[in-house]
Write a structure and sequence with these properties.
405 residues; alpha/beta; Rossmann fold; 2 domains; 6-stranded parallel beta sheet; 14 helices; 34% helix; 17% strand; elongated
Protein backbone atom coordinates (compact mmCIF):
# COMPACT_ATOMS: atom_id res chain seq x y z
CA UNK A 1 0.00 0.00 0.00
CA UNK A 2 1.37 3.40 -0.99
CA UNK A 3 -0.12 5.18 2.04
CA UNK A 4 1.17 5.18 5.61
CA UNK A 5 -0.19 2.27 7.63
CA UNK A 6 -0.88 2.10 11.37
CA UNK A 7 2.18 -0.12 11.87
CA UNK A 8 4.39 2.64 10.39
CA UNK A 9 3.56 4.97 13.30
CA UNK A 10 5.24 5.40 16.66
CA UNK A 11 2.28 5.40 19.07
CA UNK A 12 3.63 5.17 22.62
CA UNK A 13 2.59 8.20 24.64
CA UNK A 14 0.92 9.75 21.59
CA UNK A 15 -2.63 11.10 21.33
CA UNK A 16 -3.98 8.98 18.48
CA UNK A 17 -7.00 10.49 16.74
CA UNK A 18 -8.91 7.64 15.04
CA UNK A 19 -11.79 8.07 12.60
CA UNK A 20 -13.93 4.97 13.03
CA UNK A 21 -17.30 4.15 11.47
CA UNK A 22 -19.75 3.57 14.31
CA UNK A 23 -22.76 4.39 12.13
CA UNK A 24 -24.59 1.46 13.71
CA UNK A 25 -28.27 0.54 13.28
CA UNK A 26 -30.48 1.27 16.32
CA UNK A 27 -34.06 0.27 17.10
CA UNK A 28 -36.75 2.66 18.35
CA UNK A 29 -35.47 2.22 21.94
CA UNK A 30 -31.87 3.14 20.98
CA UNK A 31 -30.69 -0.46 21.27
CA UNK A 32 -27.92 -1.54 18.89
CA UNK A 33 -29.33 -4.12 16.46
CA UNK A 34 -26.03 -4.94 14.69
CA UNK A 35 -22.56 -4.22 16.09
CA UNK A 36 -20.60 -5.37 13.01
CA UNK A 37 -19.07 -1.93 12.49
CA UNK A 38 -17.84 -1.71 16.08
CA UNK A 39 -16.31 -5.19 15.81
CA UNK A 40 -14.65 -4.21 12.52
CA UNK A 41 -12.77 -1.38 14.29
CA UNK A 42 -11.41 -3.59 17.10
CA UNK A 43 -8.07 -4.59 15.47
CA UNK A 44 -7.04 -0.94 15.01
CA UNK A 45 -8.19 0.17 18.48
CA UNK A 46 -6.48 -2.82 20.13
CA UNK A 47 -3.22 -2.13 18.28
CA UNK A 48 -3.17 1.49 19.49
CA UNK A 49 -3.98 0.50 23.08
CA UNK A 50 -1.41 -2.33 23.13
CA UNK A 51 1.29 0.00 21.79
CA UNK A 52 0.74 2.63 24.48
CA UNK A 53 -1.22 5.16 22.47
CA UNK A 54 -4.16 7.18 23.76
CA UNK A 55 -7.06 6.17 21.48
CA UNK A 56 -9.40 9.09 20.75
CA UNK A 57 -12.28 7.78 18.64
CA UNK A 58 -14.52 9.94 16.48
CA UNK A 59 -17.44 8.92 14.29
CA UNK A 60 -20.80 9.96 12.89
CA UNK A 61 -24.14 8.23 13.45
CA UNK A 62 -27.18 8.74 11.24
CA UNK A 63 -28.18 12.06 9.73
CA UNK A 64 -28.72 14.64 12.49
CA UNK A 65 -28.27 17.45 9.91
CA UNK A 66 -25.72 19.51 11.81
CA UNK A 67 -27.63 19.70 15.09
CA UNK A 68 -27.35 17.87 18.41
CA UNK A 69 -30.03 15.19 18.64
CA UNK A 70 -30.13 12.56 21.40
CA UNK A 71 -31.64 10.09 18.91
CA UNK A 72 -28.24 10.00 17.18
CA UNK A 73 -25.97 10.07 20.23
CA UNK A 74 -22.92 7.81 20.17
CA UNK A 75 -23.31 7.28 23.93
CA UNK A 76 -24.86 3.85 23.14
CA UNK A 77 -21.65 2.70 21.45
CA UNK A 78 -19.34 3.19 24.46
CA UNK A 79 -20.65 0.33 26.65
CA UNK A 80 -20.81 -2.05 23.67
CA UNK A 81 -17.22 -1.23 22.67
CA UNK A 82 -16.13 -1.58 26.30
CA UNK A 83 -17.67 -5.06 26.47
CA UNK A 84 -16.13 -6.14 23.16
CA UNK A 85 -12.63 -4.85 23.91
CA UNK A 86 -12.64 -5.78 27.63
CA UNK A 87 -11.56 -2.33 28.73
CA UNK A 88 -13.26 0.83 30.03
CA UNK A 89 -14.28 3.31 27.32
CA UNK A 90 -14.88 6.89 28.43
CA UNK A 91 -17.56 8.80 26.52
CA UNK A 92 -17.59 12.59 26.29
CA UNK A 93 -20.80 14.30 25.11
CA UNK A 94 -19.12 16.63 22.60
CA UNK A 95 -16.44 16.30 19.95
CA UNK A 96 -14.74 19.72 20.18
CA UNK A 97 -14.31 22.34 22.89
CA UNK A 98 -12.81 22.62 26.36
CA UNK A 99 -14.72 19.68 27.84
CA UNK A 100 -13.19 17.39 25.22
CA UNK A 101 -9.70 18.85 25.66
CA UNK A 102 -9.95 18.27 29.42
CA UNK A 103 -11.01 14.64 28.85
CA UNK A 104 -8.02 14.11 26.52
CA UNK A 105 -5.64 15.68 29.07
CA UNK A 106 -6.84 13.20 31.71
CA UNK A 107 -6.02 10.19 29.50
CA UNK A 108 -3.22 7.76 30.33
CA UNK A 109 -1.38 5.64 27.78
CA UNK A 110 -3.67 2.82 26.61
CA UNK A 111 -6.91 4.64 27.49
CA UNK A 112 -9.87 4.88 25.11
CA UNK A 113 -12.05 7.97 24.68
CA UNK A 114 -15.13 8.11 22.43
CA UNK A 115 -16.32 11.51 21.22
CA UNK A 116 -19.91 12.52 20.51
CA UNK A 117 -21.38 12.44 16.98
CA UNK A 118 -19.33 14.57 14.55
CA UNK A 119 -22.42 15.41 12.52
CA UNK A 120 -23.91 17.38 15.42
CA UNK A 121 -21.81 20.16 13.84
CA UNK A 122 -22.53 21.35 10.26
CA UNK A 123 -18.77 21.80 9.75
CA UNK A 124 -18.25 18.02 9.54
CA UNK A 125 -20.16 17.40 6.31
CA UNK A 126 -19.15 20.78 4.87
CA UNK A 127 -15.48 19.84 5.31
CA UNK A 128 -14.96 23.07 7.26
CA UNK A 129 -11.27 23.75 8.02
CA UNK A 130 -11.97 25.52 11.32
CA UNK A 131 -13.93 22.51 12.60
CA UNK A 132 -11.27 20.14 11.23
CA UNK A 133 -8.56 22.18 13.00
CA UNK A 134 -10.41 21.81 16.32
CA UNK A 135 -10.57 18.04 15.87
CA UNK A 136 -6.94 17.84 14.77
CA UNK A 137 -5.79 19.72 17.89
CA UNK A 138 -6.80 16.64 19.92
CA UNK A 139 -4.27 14.31 18.27
CA UNK A 140 -0.56 13.95 17.55
CA UNK A 141 -1.15 11.38 14.80
CA UNK A 142 -4.25 10.41 12.81
CA UNK A 143 -5.60 7.02 11.73
CA UNK A 144 -8.44 6.59 9.28
CA UNK A 145 -10.33 3.33 9.71
CA UNK A 146 -13.71 4.47 8.33
CA UNK A 147 -13.99 3.07 4.82
CA UNK A 148 -17.75 3.65 4.84
CA UNK A 149 -17.19 7.42 4.55
CA UNK A 150 -13.95 7.35 2.54
CA UNK A 151 -15.83 8.74 -0.48
CA UNK A 152 -16.78 11.88 1.47
CA UNK A 153 -14.45 14.89 1.79
CA UNK A 154 -15.66 15.56 5.34
CA UNK A 155 -13.72 17.44 8.02
CA UNK A 156 -12.87 14.28 9.99
CA UNK A 157 -11.77 12.43 6.86
CA UNK A 158 -9.88 15.02 4.82
CA UNK A 159 -9.78 18.28 6.79
CA UNK A 160 -7.83 16.91 9.77
CA UNK A 161 -5.05 15.67 7.49
CA UNK A 162 -4.15 19.30 6.72
CA UNK A 163 -3.21 19.87 10.37
CA UNK A 164 -1.58 16.54 11.34
CA UNK A 165 1.72 15.50 9.77
CA UNK A 166 1.42 11.71 9.95
CA UNK A 167 -1.92 10.31 8.78
CA UNK A 168 -2.23 6.56 8.28
CA UNK A 169 -4.72 3.84 7.34
CA UNK A 170 -6.01 1.44 9.99
CA UNK A 171 -6.43 -2.32 9.58
CA UNK A 172 -10.00 -2.17 8.28
CA UNK A 173 -9.26 0.51 5.69
CA UNK A 174 -6.22 -1.46 4.48
CA UNK A 175 -8.28 -4.66 4.21
CA UNK A 176 -10.98 -2.88 2.18
CA UNK A 177 -8.43 -1.37 -0.20
CA UNK A 178 -6.68 -4.72 -0.66
CA UNK A 179 -9.81 -6.76 -1.44
CA UNK A 180 -11.58 -4.18 -3.59
CA UNK A 181 -8.34 -3.11 -5.23
CA UNK A 182 -7.52 -6.69 -6.19
CA UNK A 183 -11.03 -7.15 -7.60
CA UNK A 184 -10.55 -4.09 -9.81
CA UNK A 185 -6.91 -4.64 -10.83
CA UNK A 186 -6.30 -8.38 -10.87
CA UNK A 187 -9.44 -10.47 -10.28
CA UNK A 188 -9.48 -14.24 -10.41
CA UNK A 189 -11.66 -14.94 -13.46
CA UNK A 190 -14.41 -15.26 -14.45
CA UNK A 191 -15.22 -12.00 -12.67
CA UNK A 192 -18.94 -11.63 -11.97
CA UNK A 193 -20.74 -8.56 -10.58
CA UNK A 194 -24.19 -8.90 -9.02
CA UNK A 195 -26.09 -5.62 -8.88
CA UNK A 196 -29.49 -5.21 -7.24
CA UNK A 197 -31.50 -2.85 -5.11
CA UNK A 198 -34.26 -0.37 -5.70
CA UNK A 199 -32.62 2.46 -7.62
CA UNK A 200 -30.83 2.12 -10.93
CA UNK A 201 -29.62 5.72 -10.41
CA UNK A 202 -27.35 4.54 -7.54
CA UNK A 203 -25.54 1.96 -9.65
CA UNK A 204 -25.90 2.75 -13.35
CA UNK A 205 -22.49 4.44 -13.56
CA UNK A 206 -20.87 1.55 -11.68
CA UNK A 207 -22.37 -0.94 -14.12
CA UNK A 208 -21.10 1.18 -17.01
CA UNK A 209 -17.60 1.17 -15.52
CA UNK A 210 -17.66 -2.53 -14.60
CA UNK A 211 -18.40 -3.55 -18.21
CA UNK A 212 -14.70 -2.85 -18.89
CA UNK A 213 -13.58 -5.11 -16.02
CA UNK A 214 -15.99 -8.02 -15.57
CA UNK A 215 -17.02 -11.10 -17.54
CA UNK A 216 -20.68 -10.96 -16.50
CA UNK A 217 -23.16 -8.69 -14.70
CA UNK A 218 -26.25 -10.17 -13.02
CA UNK A 219 -28.93 -7.53 -12.50
CA UNK A 220 -31.83 -8.06 -10.08
CA UNK A 221 -33.99 -6.00 -7.77
CA UNK A 222 -36.18 -3.13 -8.92
CA UNK A 223 -33.33 -1.75 -11.03
CA UNK A 224 -33.71 -4.72 -13.40
CA UNK A 225 -37.07 -3.37 -14.59
CA UNK A 226 -35.49 -0.27 -16.11
CA UNK A 227 -33.25 -2.58 -18.18
CA UNK A 228 -36.15 -4.89 -19.10
CA UNK A 229 -38.32 -1.97 -20.21
CA UNK A 230 -35.55 -0.70 -22.49
CA UNK A 231 -35.45 -4.21 -24.02
CA UNK A 232 -39.18 -3.97 -24.73
CA UNK A 233 -40.35 -6.41 -22.04
CA UNK A 234 -43.56 -5.40 -20.16
CA UNK A 235 -42.85 -4.31 -16.58
CA UNK A 236 -46.37 -3.39 -15.41
CA UNK A 237 -46.27 -1.03 -12.42
CA UNK A 238 -42.70 -2.00 -11.46
CA UNK A 239 -40.33 0.80 -10.50
CA UNK A 240 -38.63 2.33 -13.56
CA UNK A 241 -36.35 5.37 -13.75
CA UNK A 242 -36.31 7.55 -16.85
CA UNK A 243 -34.36 10.72 -15.94
CA UNK A 244 -31.88 11.00 -13.08
CA UNK A 245 -29.52 13.72 -11.88
CA UNK A 246 -25.84 13.17 -11.17
CA UNK A 247 -24.07 14.84 -8.23
CA UNK A 248 -23.36 17.92 -10.34
CA UNK A 249 -27.03 18.35 -11.21
CA UNK A 250 -26.66 17.14 -14.81
CA UNK A 251 -29.68 15.25 -16.12
CA UNK A 252 -29.07 11.74 -17.42
CA UNK A 253 -31.46 9.95 -19.75
CA UNK A 254 -31.50 6.47 -18.21
CA UNK A 255 -32.93 4.50 -21.19
CA UNK A 256 -30.24 6.00 -23.46
CA UNK A 257 -27.51 5.06 -20.96
CA UNK A 258 -28.94 1.54 -20.53
CA UNK A 259 -28.96 1.13 -24.32
CA UNK A 260 -25.32 2.19 -24.56
CA UNK A 261 -24.37 -0.23 -21.74
CA UNK A 262 -26.14 -3.12 -23.48
CA UNK A 263 -24.40 -2.29 -26.78
CA UNK A 264 -21.00 -1.95 -25.10
CA UNK A 265 -21.50 -5.29 -23.31
CA UNK A 266 -22.43 -6.96 -26.59
CA UNK A 267 -19.33 -5.61 -28.34
CA UNK A 268 -16.99 -6.63 -25.51
CA UNK A 269 -18.66 -10.07 -25.06
CA UNK A 270 -19.70 -9.31 -21.47
CA UNK A 271 -22.84 -11.18 -20.41
CA UNK A 272 -25.58 -9.04 -18.90
CA UNK A 273 -28.07 -11.40 -17.27
CA UNK A 274 -31.52 -10.04 -16.43
CA UNK A 275 -34.39 -11.87 -14.69
CA UNK A 276 -36.17 -14.39 -16.91
CA UNK A 277 -39.03 -14.90 -14.45
CA UNK A 278 -40.47 -12.90 -11.57
CA UNK A 279 -42.59 -13.01 -8.47
CA UNK A 280 -45.10 -10.24 -9.07
CA UNK A 281 -47.42 -8.67 -6.51
CA UNK A 282 -50.55 -6.57 -6.87
CA UNK A 283 -49.22 -4.17 -4.21
CA UNK A 284 -46.06 -3.37 -2.28
CA UNK A 285 -47.05 -5.15 0.94
CA UNK A 286 -46.64 -8.35 2.97
CA UNK A 287 -50.26 -9.33 2.27
CA UNK A 288 -50.02 -8.80 -1.51
CA UNK A 289 -51.50 -11.32 -3.90
CA UNK A 290 -48.61 -12.93 -5.75
CA UNK A 291 -48.02 -14.82 -9.00
CA UNK A 292 -44.99 -16.19 -10.83
CA UNK A 293 -44.63 -14.89 -14.39
CA UNK A 294 -42.10 -15.73 -17.06
CA UNK A 295 -40.35 -13.96 -19.93
CA UNK A 296 -43.58 -12.42 -21.17
CA UNK A 297 -43.08 -9.87 -18.37
CA UNK A 298 -45.13 -8.23 -15.67
CA UNK A 299 -48.87 -7.75 -16.09
CA UNK A 300 -50.53 -4.33 -16.01
CA UNK A 301 -51.37 -3.27 -12.46
CA UNK A 302 -48.81 -5.68 -10.98
CA UNK A 303 -45.19 -5.09 -9.99
CA UNK A 304 -42.08 -7.26 -9.95
CA UNK A 305 -40.94 -7.75 -6.34
CA UNK A 306 -38.49 -10.68 -6.50
CA UNK A 307 -36.77 -13.04 -8.92
CA UNK A 308 -38.31 -16.50 -9.36
CA UNK A 309 -36.88 -20.03 -9.70
CA UNK A 310 -35.67 -19.82 -13.32
CA UNK A 311 -33.64 -16.68 -12.60
CA UNK A 312 -32.34 -18.13 -9.33
CA UNK A 313 -31.04 -21.16 -11.29
CA UNK A 314 -29.53 -18.95 -14.02
CA UNK A 315 -27.78 -16.64 -11.52
CA UNK A 316 -26.63 -19.49 -9.25
CA UNK A 317 -24.98 -21.33 -12.16
CA UNK A 318 -23.10 -18.17 -13.17
CA UNK A 319 -21.95 -17.66 -9.57
CA UNK A 320 -20.79 -21.30 -9.37
CA UNK A 321 -18.50 -20.78 -12.40
CA UNK A 322 -17.00 -17.52 -11.07
CA UNK A 323 -13.50 -16.88 -9.75
CA UNK A 324 -14.40 -13.49 -8.21
CA UNK A 325 -17.86 -12.18 -7.30
CA UNK A 326 -18.79 -8.68 -6.15
CA UNK A 327 -22.36 -8.32 -4.84
CA UNK A 328 -24.13 -5.05 -4.06
CA UNK A 329 -27.91 -4.90 -3.65
CA UNK A 330 -30.73 -7.41 -3.00
CA UNK A 331 -32.69 -9.27 -5.68
CA UNK A 332 -36.10 -8.28 -4.32
CA UNK A 333 -37.89 -6.72 -1.37
CA UNK A 334 -36.09 -9.13 0.96
CA UNK A 335 -37.31 -7.33 4.10
CA UNK A 336 -40.72 -8.92 3.36
CA UNK A 337 -40.66 -12.72 3.78
CA UNK A 338 -42.87 -13.08 0.71
CA UNK A 339 -40.16 -11.57 -1.51
CA UNK A 340 -36.94 -12.72 0.21
CA UNK A 341 -36.37 -16.01 -1.61
CA UNK A 342 -34.29 -14.63 -4.49
CA UNK A 343 -31.90 -12.67 -2.28
CA UNK A 344 -31.44 -15.61 0.12
CA UNK A 345 -30.80 -17.95 -2.81
CA UNK A 346 -28.08 -15.66 -4.18
CA UNK A 347 -26.53 -15.48 -0.69
CA UNK A 348 -26.53 -19.29 -0.52
CA UNK A 349 -25.01 -19.66 -4.00
CA UNK A 350 -22.28 -17.19 -3.08
CA UNK A 351 -21.52 -18.95 0.22
CA UNK A 352 -21.27 -22.32 -1.54
CA UNK A 353 -19.05 -21.09 -4.38
CA UNK A 354 -15.25 -21.31 -4.47
CA UNK A 355 -15.01 -17.71 -5.68
CA UNK A 356 -13.39 -14.80 -3.90
CA UNK A 357 -16.63 -13.20 -2.70
CA UNK A 358 -16.99 -9.53 -1.78
CA UNK A 359 -20.29 -8.21 -0.45
CA UNK A 360 -20.93 -4.48 0.00
CA UNK A 361 -23.91 -2.23 0.64
CA UNK A 362 -26.13 -2.17 3.72
CA UNK A 363 -28.95 -4.29 2.28
CA UNK A 364 -26.66 -6.99 0.85
CA UNK A 365 -24.73 -7.19 4.12
CA UNK A 366 -28.02 -7.35 6.08
CA UNK A 367 -29.19 -10.16 3.77
CA UNK A 368 -25.94 -12.13 4.26
CA UNK A 369 -26.21 -11.69 8.04
CA UNK A 370 -29.89 -12.69 7.96
CA UNK A 371 -29.00 -15.82 5.98
CA UNK A 372 -26.45 -16.88 8.61
CA UNK A 373 -23.83 -17.33 5.88
CA UNK A 374 -21.59 -14.33 6.62
CA UNK A 375 -18.77 -16.62 7.78
CA UNK A 376 -18.55 -18.16 4.30
CA UNK A 377 -18.02 -14.84 2.50
CA UNK A 378 -14.42 -13.83 1.76
CA UNK A 379 -14.89 -10.14 2.55
CA UNK A 380 -17.90 -8.16 3.78
CA UNK A 381 -17.30 -4.50 3.01
CA UNK A 382 -18.33 -1.86 5.52
CA UNK A 383 -18.84 0.69 2.76
CA UNK A 384 -21.83 0.80 0.45
CA UNK A 385 -21.34 4.00 -1.52
CA UNK A 386 -17.58 3.92 -0.93
CA UNK A 387 -17.19 0.39 -2.29
CA UNK A 388 -19.30 1.28 -5.35
CA UNK A 389 -17.22 4.38 -6.08
CA UNK A 390 -14.01 2.38 -5.61
CA UNK A 391 -15.24 -0.27 -8.05
CA UNK A 392 -16.22 2.50 -10.43
CA UNK A 393 -12.56 3.56 -10.42
CA UNK A 394 -13.06 6.86 -8.60
CA UNK A 395 -10.44 8.25 -6.27
CA UNK A 396 -11.76 8.30 -2.70
CA UNK A 397 -10.91 11.58 -0.87
CA UNK A 398 -10.55 9.88 2.53
CA UNK A 399 -7.83 7.61 1.16
CA UNK A 400 -6.08 10.18 -1.06
CA UNK A 401 -5.69 12.55 1.91
CA UNK A 402 -3.55 10.11 3.93
CA UNK A 403 0.22 10.52 4.09
CA UNK A 404 2.27 8.79 1.41
CA UNK A 405 4.92 6.35 2.60
Amino acid sequence: MAKLFIEDLELKGKRVLIRVDFNIPLDENQNITDDTRIKSALPTIKYVVEHGGKAILMSHLGRPKGQANSKYSLAVAAPRLSKLIGKKVVFVDDCIGQKVKNAVTRMNDGDILLLENLRFYPGEEKGDDAFAGELASLGDVYIDDAFGTAHRAHASMVGVTKFIDRCAAGYLLKKEIEYLGRAVRDPKRPFVAIMGGAKVSDKIKVIESLIEKVDAVLIGGAMAYTFLKVKGIPVGSSRVEEIIEDKKGNKINVPELVNSILKKASLTKVDILLPIDHIEGDKFAEDANVKVVGQSGIENGWMGLDIADGTIKLFSEKIKEAGTVVWNGPMGVFEMELFAKGTMAVAKALAESDAVSIVGGGDSVAAINKSGLAGKITHISTGGGASLEYLEGKELPGISALSDK
